[in-house]
Amino acid sequence: MTVDVQWAADALLTAYRTRQPISPIAARFADAPLSTAYEIALAQVESWVKDGDVVKGHKVGLASRAIQRQMNVDQPDFGHLTAGMFHLEHQPIPADTFIQPRIEPEVAFVLAKPLRGPGVTVAEAAAAVDFCLPALEIVDSRIQDWQIGIFDTVADNASSGGVVLGSRPVRLADVDLRLAGCTLHVNGELIATGAGGAVLGSPLNALVWLANTVGPLGVTLEPGHVVLPGSMTKAVPIAPGDAVVADIAGVGSVTAVLAGKEDR
């Protein structure tokens, strides 16, 4: 690990710990390939695992044009999901877990078989899925004011923050994820709408992209792991006390609650 990679990983780990965002790091890596950003992210994951956390899955970020335009990037990325990022539906999530949270509705895949690229096909990806769940991903950035480009967000573990899963499993064969519409309500107000087709044409395509991207890096998508394929809508800022409901046609609904003062 180079000195610069260690510096960036330590800076981001400090931001996680103190909840104080840092300035963008990309300028220090102007000539570095994107693989260097993944090195920075992996160094943080290794630190969390060393401290007792466990990898429970992966996420695809920046998978829809709406999110790419919002974040001013032009390609997907991926991050790791650890046990500490998962929160129960309807249970207040401590607001001080995050710095500047936003929320995204997704269809989560839970795997029954391992997937390892390169060369994974849609057929193989579909056969590896045990079931789907409605999900809300809380994305967060350790970079001040979300001033991120692709290098910054990749280094920041794809801006991962938290995950809330619904509790009604659905078989992949029972829903057409391309056509599944989604509504996102915050405190009862309709904030955004979308559909599965916004996620690389289908959330299943995002699963294929992920398996084929992480495989050459030595990563296998493991049975029982959760894969978040990407948001069906733009990311929406949330604040303490907010209750968020995503309803995905054919998949179900999921509710996330960010704790307010009365929950402390």
Automatic annotation (TrEMBL):
Recorded GO MF terms: hydrolase activity
Domain Fumarylacetoacetase-like C-terminal: residue ranges: 90-256
The name this protein goes by in its record: Fumarylacetoacetate hydrolase family protein
Gene3D superfamilies: Fumarylacetoacetase-like, C-terminal domain (3.90.850.10)
Domain of life, source organism: Bacteria
Keywords from the named record: Hydrolase, Lyase
